[in-house]
Amino acid sequence: MATQAGAPPSVGIVDRWQAARLPLPGWFPWLAGRLLAGFGTVLAVSAIVYLATLALPSDPARVILGPEATDKAVAILREQLGLNRPIAVQYVDWLRHVAVGDFGNSLDSNVPAFGLVIERLGNSIALMIFVLLVTAPAAFLLGVAMAVKRDSRFDRTAMTLLIGFKAVPPFAIAVALILLFSTGPLAILPAVSILDPSLSPFAQPLYLVLPATTLLLLVLPFLTRLIRASLTETLEADYIAAARLRGLPERRIVWRHAVPNALPPVIQGFAMATRMVLGGALIVEVVFSYPGIGSALNAAIETRDIPVVQAIALLTAIAVVFINLVADFATVLLTPRLRTTTRPRLRSGTGARLRLRAGGA
Amino acid sequence: MTSRRRRPNRWRNERQIRAGTVLLAAVLAIALPGPWLAPHDPNALIGAPYGPPGAGAWLGYDYLGRDIWSRLLAGGLSIFWMSIAASILALAAGAAIGMLSAYRKGAVDQGVVWSTDVLFAFPDLILVLLVVSMLGRAPWLIVLLVAIAFLPGVIRLSRGVTLGIVEQEYVDSARMMGFSSAHILLREVLPNMITPLLVQFGVMLTWAIGMLSGLSFLGYGVAPPAADWGLMINENRAGLLVQPWAVLAPVAMIALFALGTNLIAEGIGRINARIEEEA
Predict the structure, then answer these.
(1) Which end of chain A is more exposed for a tag (fewer CB within 10 A), N or C?
(2) Which domains occur in chain B, in start order?
C-alpha cells in the first residue's frame, strides 16, 4: 500500500476496478450487471412458462396414449415420464434439458419441439426483418420531416393518420388490407401466405407484403412519433438557437447538429418497436396463415402441445430480453455522457418509453 | 414564434377530444343498449348461411344464417365491460404497487422493479394466451390476465411520479407533522398523478380493446355461440368474399371504438403535457 501513495481509497467494487487500472472501459461493470440481471429475468420467465403450462387441464401421458388407453397404462407412463415427482424437481430437470435446447418432442408430431420452433422462428424473423428494414428508414424520414415542419398542415395531417393507425388493432388492419388488395378489382396480392418451405421467405416476397404492411402500420406510428418528439425537443435546445444565430444553414443544423443528438432515445424505441412487432406477429400471422411462430403457437395451444408452447414462449421472452440488452448497450455506447461514466444510470429507457406510453409525445 | 405555434395545437386538441367523444358515443350507442334493441335473437338461425342483405336483415346473414345486424348489436357489451374492468384493475393495482414501492424504497422496490422487468419480457399477448389457453376462457380470468399484462406499465409510471414527489418539501413537512404513510400517499402523492393515470387509463383502454378483440378473434375470448365482435370476425373470415359485411361490420366497430378512446386519451395527454410545460 505504501508504494501506491497516490491511489484513491477503494470503496466499492467499481472504484476498485478503476484502481486496478484494468484495460476495461468504465461501463464494463455496468454491462456485467445488466447481463446478470438479464439472465435472472430469463430464469424467472422460464419458471413462469413452466408453471403456466403445468396448469394445463390435460395430462401429457393421456395426450400421448390417446383417449382409449386404460388408466393403468396412463399411470405407468406418468411414472416413466417422471410426472409424479415434486414440481420443483421436475422444473430443474426440465431446465437442464432446455439449457441445451432440448424441449422434448412435440406431442403432436413427435419431432423435437426445438427444431420445429426454430424452423418457424426463421420465417417469423424474416418477416420481422422485412418489416423493420422498411419501417426504420420510413419512420426516420417521416419523423424528421414532421419535426422540422412541426405544426404545419403536413405535420397535422400525418399526425392524425398516425394516431388513427396506432389505435386500430392489427387484425382489423389485416382484414381491411385483405378486403382491399385480395378481393374485388384490386386483387393483386395473396390473402393467404402459404410459403414454399423449400425456399427462403425472401425469395417469395409477394407473400410477405400484406403481413408486413400490417405490422408496419402497427409500429410506424410509435416509432415516427418517438423520432418526432425527440428531434422537436433537441431543436428547441439552446445550442441549436446558437447555431442558427451563427448563420449556419438550416439543413446542416438539422442533420449535423440536431439529429445525432436526438437518436439515442430512439434506440430504446426501436427495441420497443421490435417487441411490438413480435407481439403483433402472433395475431397477424394467424390472419394470413403465415407459417411463423405466431401460427405455430396458436396451433400448439389448440392441440395442447406443451413442449412447443413452452419453447415458443421461452424463446420469444429470451429474444425480448436480448433486444432490450442490445438497445441499452447501444444507448450507452452512443451517448458520450453515459459512455465515460463508471455507472451509467439507465433504466431501460424508462423515461422515453413512459413519455410515449402516456401519450405526451 | 411560440404563441404562433401554440394556437393550432390547442385547436387540434379540442377537436381531437371532440372527435373522439363523438366516435365513442356512436359506438356506445350501439353497444350498450344493443342487446335489448336487436330485432332478432342473435343466435337464431333465420336465413341462408352467408345470405345477402335483404328485408329481414339489412346486413345479411353470417356463416350459420344468423342475422348480422342483431349479432352486431348484441356483441359490443362484452368487450366494453371487459376492457374497462381490465383497465381499472390494472390502474388501481399498478398505482398502489408503484406508489408503495417508490415510497418504501429498498429491497421491496428492487423486487418490484425486477418483477416488472420480468413481466415486460413477455410480448403482451403471449402471457395472456398462455394462461387463458391453459385455464379456460372465463371472462373474469381474461380480465385479470389482461390487467396483469398492463400492470408493469402502470407500476413504472406511478413509481416514477412518486419518486419525484416524495423528495418534495411538502412531503417532508407532512411527514414531520406526523401524518401517517397512508395519509401522505393518498393526500399528498396521489393527487399529483391523477392526470398521468387518466391518460394511461385511456391508452390502456385502447390496448385492451385491441387485445380482447384479438383474443376472441383467435378463439380464446368469449366462447361461442355468444355474440362478440372479435368472435364474429373469426367465425365469418372464411366467407369474406361472399359476405364481407359479416367481417367488415365488427371490424369497423372495434376500430372506431379503439380510435375514439385513443383520440380522447391523446387529447388529454397533450393538454397535460402543455400544462406541465407552462407551469
Answers:
(1) N
(2) 15-33+57-278 (1.10.3720.10)
